[in-house]
Amino acid sequence: MPNIPLGLKPCVFLAPFGTTEIVPVYKTRCAKSFSAFYLVVGVTKLIYEASSSLTRPARYAPSVRICRLGSDCTCTIEGEMIFADQALARRLEGAEAFACAQFAEARKRLFPESTSAWMKCAGATVVFDGVDAPTTQTFGLGLYEELAPAALDEIERFFLDRGAEVMHEVCPFAGAATLDLLCARGYRPLEISSVLYRAVEPAAEAHPGNIRVRVIDPVEADLWSSISARGWASEHPEFEEFVREMGAVCAARQQSPCFLAEIDGTAGAAGALILHEGVALFGGAATVPELRRRGLQSALLHERMRYAAEHSCDLAMMVAEAGSNSQRNAERKGFRMAYTRLKWKLVGR
């Protein structure tokens, strides 16, 4: 059975063309004509017109984004709401864990003398990418497996043996038992972030003609990191040096295209996209101060959304500082809060 977009439930079951195989039928809607269609998932894999009583195929559809109006038409799924539950949290946290692990993998490939490393322990992804790197932490602690003291001992040794502080990004779906253990071991909350999500849907509107968004070539890593660093430095000056240094690493990560947005031929905004098991993590977007409020961020978001759709992603996510302008901007673009996440730091050791 093919993968079905998250949150979509069958609206009817039928046996197509007189066969005995019962397959689910999912409702979809054409963005151009606003006509209702039905997607039959199974050996037939066809879109049917609602008015035809599910007897006449409108067009063969390897993707639900093709309809009888042609390949230039974007059809989107009409499904039930995507609920913020543990299953969703595991997909979101898994994507960000993959992104951080890829930092360590790419750095090790580029700089063999690097001490970057990562491992899995008790379902969590444990990453060391440098003593002061913001990616040196864990993801998914207590979310995939119950956290035991022995597993926490092993994770702590991983960081302490490398001279790093011990920090964990902990999703609330990890449960009270995980938080209780962290408190008992001397951890204290350090940072609060908002994890946001939405369905992947290519933008219907086009960005202005003087704006161009493209995936960079590896040789443009320095340009990408320079634009990104200038954009971040105005709000997070502590990250400027790190962002400048990570350009080559970002370009070398797997399943992580880097994007540049240009206005009138001048590069003004940068962003990244990480693809993992159907989830597209939108990260690292920043615009240089002198080119803000010119539509670059919107164009960057639209192009990355289109890229995610073309690469079979059904779920988009962002992470932002709780209550920040970044969070508000994401919500304006249709992202919803999945949960608020705490970063915990081990103190007193």
What does this structure look like?
- With 349 residues, this protein is α+β, with helices and mostly antiparallel strands.
- It has helices spanning 86-110, 149-160, 176-184, 221-233, 240-245, 247-252, 296-310, 325-332; strands at 12-14, 23-30, 36-40, 46-49, 57-60, 75-77, 117-121, 124-128, 137-139, 167-170, 187-199, 211-215, 258-263, 266-276, 279-287, 315-321, 336-346.
- The protein has eight helices and 17 strands.
- The strands form two sheets. An eleven-stranded mixed β-sheet has the order 7-8-9-10-17-11-16-15-14-13-12, sandwiched between helices.
- Mean pLDDT is 80; it is low at 1-9, 12-23, 29-38 and 40-79.
What is the level-2 CATH architecture name of the largest domain? Answer: 3-Layer(aba) Sandwich
Give the CA-based shape.
globular
Rg value: 22 Å
How many separate domains make up the residues?
3
